[in-house]
Amino acid sequence: MQEEDSRATGYTTLAAGPDFRHEIEIKRSRFITVLRRAGTEELARDLATGLRREFHDARHHCSAFIIGADRNIQRSNDDGEPSGTAGLPMLEALAKRETLPGVADLSDVSAVVVRYFGGVLLGAGGLVRAYSESVSSALSLVPMVRRSRLRIGAAEVPHAAAGRLENDLRSAGFVMAGTSYAAGHTVLRVAVPDEPAAIAAAAGRVQLLTAGSAALTMEGTEWVDVPLA
Question: Is the domain of 35 the same as that of 11?
Fold first, then answer.
């Protein structure tokens, strides 16, 4: 994962789940956009490879992707369309997508647009608009999350108390980062900003909710999916 050495503390990406598909028609040509969350170039390129097999009778399978917390890997491919009319507009649609007002930070996303030619030539300008609109319209519909580098705290609690404590922490606005089970206890992991005040607040809430029977042990930082507000 390119995220490992990044200095970034967060970015926006697609929510975990299956590939997202959206289709539009422009002058009888079908444009099928497929979006995939992809943290590596291999995953990003595999999307186009798979779609070429699935839509083997389509004329074009144009692609673009952005990888890494710093968005340092950006690639595009016109796949037979006139140079600069497909892959680059798709890449710009990804790169310029505002996930918050004035904030364009979308990454770890691969986009492929499968085109079935409808018999009407669109011209260079029409192709640019069509491929850009295809990706932009799909992005407006796909679920997204905030990917944040957070400090992880672990609390050991009895199995019988784990479910209630997890629900109480979620209700209080904390982000849970996984649960593991040992012979005599459950380990709940909480993700918080890597700041003293946030760590102290989380530790205090765990002690309060468990009447002092559990403590939060702080571990390292990890990349965690956080729902968008």
Answer: yes
* Blockwise average pLDDT, block size 10, the chain, 229 residues: 64 97 97 98 97 97 97 97 98 96 96 96 97 98 96 95 94 93 94 95 95 94 90
Distance in angstroms (rounded) separating the CA atoms of residues 113 and 97? 17
Report the C-alpha gap between 217 and 112 in whole angstroms.
43
Q: Which two tokens stand for residue 178?
A: 């996984």
Domain count within the chain: 2
pLDDT for 50 equals 98
Q: Checking phi first, is residue 201 left (phi over 0); if not, alpha (psi -120 to 50) or beta?
A: alpha
Do 29 and 103 fall into the same domain? yes
The helix or strand, by DSSP H or E, that contains position 61, with its residue range, turns out to be strand 60-67
Find the DSSP H helices in 101-222: 123-139, 159-171, 196-209
19: left (phi over 0), alpha (psi -120 to 50) or beta: beta
Residue in 70, 64, 130 with CA at minimum distance from that of residue 94: 64
Residues 135 and 192 placed together within one structural domain of the fold: no
Query: Could you tell me if 24 and 62 lie in one domain?
Result: yes
CB 6 within 8 A of CB 69: yes
Record the pTM.
Answer: 0.88
